[in-house]
């Protein structure tokens, strides 16, 4: 290290931290980042890296704290804005995520992830056309990103453009077959198109790549449940409700309760029974007859 | 002591000439230090693991003619995996002690220095050095840091290092008798799948947390030389199911701290009591549980080759439910 300048030596330390994050060795990465901060207490990038580690470990408050420390030292630190946007998004503070994304886009207009995050938020809010437009911008900047392409497939599925959705799904798989996120999004897309077999296939790939991801595990178990046709039929009204406004749902329930009360009760009982029976079958299929006490 | 372990004079003389090589603090060059003194006798329990290692590593070297009859030669590679703090590193050192081999220890810091700017030539140099010092064990601790999945790697350079590792392992298989590679990792699921092909790390050995009697022995060892007051270690061992060796060490440290606090108040030498240990054990959770929870997910959902079936079997046998 003696032949290196101080700036080069610090760059090496950044890359060690980034590499440890890539290896999911967050404890060691934290130790490295803290050691760097002890030596360089005003280093904004070291704070941003520490914030990044905390996003990966889902400690969002800490991630926001360290990113703000970074931004105090350099209000235009790109990584800090990116981490901040992710921290707000992942902790479901979506308005704050949008604000942070706006700031981030100001300092780093060619970072496609901001467009991707915006698209995700608009997908959650049912603003599918806007979401699609943001994903297309993200893809303009980074055309080879499989997760973005999968999101475009999902947006098209939500907009009812099933042929385009299938086409983008194929393109996403051409770009990568080793990304659990891509497979998860493609599973949602397939489900939206009513293609339950493909949904399950995509989830199988996603869980093979990252079985430790809770969201993927839950989606996979749900996918297995939905492979039972009876459950799918009974689930159909609830899927429809999800797309309606709350007042519409309430009105339908009230109407059904008045007109077909016995039928409604039978439906609810059959639904609950099927839900638990299929859940049990899935559990037995995966874990055998062993239950946590 | 093992029946297979050479204890004759010749072996003792050979042993003196052997050396342990590890990296200097910058991870750039080798420094020689003493050879590991540990043998299997120092490894409490793990009988199945030791048996597998003897069969694949030690016996082919000690009785080559016998193994040649079965078409087996000395050399090869072994991958130790399991929860952190359960003695994988110690076990690797004990293997070196058992077979009178030089021991090259590649630790995380050395691997990281390779990632950040140093070339894959460094890795080649390590293997060359090992070939010059046969019989030799190359122990790659935290193997996942060097041999992670190439699909997850963004940098071309990172992928090159994995390629180099594959090349060296194939070199070992084809030319280098008496060069052994032991890898250890807590996260075998992150390894590049090419590393697991035949001739590379195809012997996968699960190193579980210590059993009750082993826990008692560990506690006894960790308390050795410290002031204690009529301890019932068997009881503490019974109450620390699934605790790793490192967890048990922490319990002893906590108990020592409690006794020292009393000493500060009383001014007298206060022994470590059963209560100190019991309280320390109660205040800690086995750190292995988190590992088992992750391993269970991989074993259940992502185990086409049934590599981690052994983990599920272990959990079932020990009643571990997560």
List the keywords.
heterodimer, A: 293 residues, mainly alpha, Serine Threonine Protein Phosphatase 5, Tetratricopeptide repeat, 3 domains, 16 helices, 80% helix, B: 322 residues, alpha/beta, Rossmann fold, Helicase, Ruva Protein, domain 3, 7-stranded mixed beta sheet, 14 helices, globular
Please provide a written account of the structure.
- The complex is a heterodimer of chains A (293) and B (322).
- Chain A has 293 residues and is mostly helical.
- Chain A folds into three domains: 85 residues, Alpha Horseshoe (Serine Threonine Protein Phosphatase 5, Tetratricopeptide repeat), CATH 1.25.40.10; 118 residues, Serine Threonine Protein Phosphatase 5, Tetratricopeptide repeat (Alpha Horseshoe), CATH 1.25.40.10; 66 residues, no CATH class.
- In chain A, 80% of the residues lie in helices and 0% in strands.
- Chain A has 16 helices and no strands.
- In chain A, α12 runs antiparallel to α13.
- Chain A starts with 5 loop residues before the first helix and ends in a 6-residue tail after the last helix.
- The mean pLDDT of chain A is 89.
- By secondary structure, chain B is α/β, with parallel strands linked by helices.
- Chain B folds into three domains: 198 residues, P-loop containing nucleotide triphosphate hydrolases (Rossmann fold); 72 residues, Helicase, Ruva Protein, domain 3 (Orthogonal Bundle); 31 residues, no CATH class.
- The interface between A and B is medium-sized, with 24 and 27 residues.
């Amino acid at each position: 290290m003696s032949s290196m300048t101080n700036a080069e030596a610090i760059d090496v330390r950044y890359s060690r931290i980034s590499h440890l994050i890539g290896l999911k060795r967050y404890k060691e990465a934290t130790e490295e980042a803290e050691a760097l901060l002890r030596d360089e207490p005003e280093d904004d990038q070291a704070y941003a890296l520490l914030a990044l580690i905390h996003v990966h470990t889902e400690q969002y408050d800490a991630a926001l704290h360290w990113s703000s420390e970074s931004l105090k030292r350099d209000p235009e630190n790109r990584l800090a804005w990116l981490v901040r946007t992710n921290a707000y998004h992942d902790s479901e503070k979506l308005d704050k995520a949008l604000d942070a994304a706006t700031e981030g886009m100001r300092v780093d207009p060619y970072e496609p992830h901001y467009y991707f995050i915006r698209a995700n938020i608009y997908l959650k809010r049912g603003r599918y056309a806007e979401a699609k437009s943001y994903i297309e911008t993200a893809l303009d900047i980074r055309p080879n990103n499989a997760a973005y392409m999968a999101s475009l497939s999902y947006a098209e599925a939500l907009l009812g453009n099933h042929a385009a959705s299938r086409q983008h799904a194929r393109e996403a798989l051409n770009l990568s077959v080793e990304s659990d996120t891509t497979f998860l999004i493609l599973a949602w897309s397939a489900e939206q198109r009513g293609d339950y077999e493909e949904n399950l296939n995509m989830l199988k790939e996603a869980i093979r790549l990252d079985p430790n991801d809770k969201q993927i595990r839950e989606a996979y178990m749900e996918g297995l449940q939905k492979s039972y046709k009876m459950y799918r039929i009974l689930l159909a009204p609830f899927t429809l409700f999800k797309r309606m406004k709350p007042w519409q749902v309430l009105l339908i329930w009230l109407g059904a309760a008045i007109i077909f009360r016995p039928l409604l009760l039978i439906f609810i009982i059959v639904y609950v029974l099927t839900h638990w029976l299929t859940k049990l079958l899935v559990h037995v299929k995966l874990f055998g007859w062993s239950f946590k006490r | 002591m093992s029946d297979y372990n050479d204890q004759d004079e010749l072996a003792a003389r050979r042993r003196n000439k052997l050396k342990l090589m590890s990296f200097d603090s910058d991870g750039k060059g080798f420094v020689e230090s003493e050879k590991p003194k540990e043998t299997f006798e120092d490894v409490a329990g793990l009988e199945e693991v030791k048996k597998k290692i003897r069969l694949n590593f030690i016996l082919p070297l000690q009785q080559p003619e016998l193994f040649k009859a079965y078409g087996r030669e000395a050399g090869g590679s072994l991958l130790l995996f399991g929860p952190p703090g359960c003695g994988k590193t110690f076990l690797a050192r004990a293997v070196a002690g058992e077979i009178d081999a030089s021991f090259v220890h590649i630790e995380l810091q050395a691997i990281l220095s390779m990632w950040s700017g140093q070339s894959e030539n460094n890795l080649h140099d390590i293997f060359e050095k090992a070939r010059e010092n046969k019989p030799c064990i190359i122990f790659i601790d935290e193997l996942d840091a060097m041999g992670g999945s190439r699909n997850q790697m963004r940098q071309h350079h990172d992928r090159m290092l994995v390629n180099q590792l594959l090349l060296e392992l194939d070199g070992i298989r084809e030319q280098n008798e008496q060069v052994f590679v032991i890898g250890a990792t807590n996260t075998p699921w992150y390894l590049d799948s090419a590393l697991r092909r035949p001739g590379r790390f195809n012997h996968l050995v699960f190193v579980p947390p210590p059993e009750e009697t082993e826990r008692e022995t560990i506690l006894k060892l960790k308390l050795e030389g410290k002031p204690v007051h009529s301890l019932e270690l068997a009881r503490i061992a019974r109450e620390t199911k699934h605790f790793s060796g490192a967890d048990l060490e922490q319990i002893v440290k906590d108990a020592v701290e409690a006794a020292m606090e009393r000493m500060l108040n009383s001014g007298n030498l206060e022994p470590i009591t059963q209560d100190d240990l019991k309280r320390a054990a109660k205040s800690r959770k086995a750190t292995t549980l988190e590992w088992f929870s992750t391993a269970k997910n991989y074993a259940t959902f992502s185990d086409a080759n049934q590599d981690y079936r052994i983990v599920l079997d272990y959990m079932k046998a020990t009643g571990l439910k997560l």
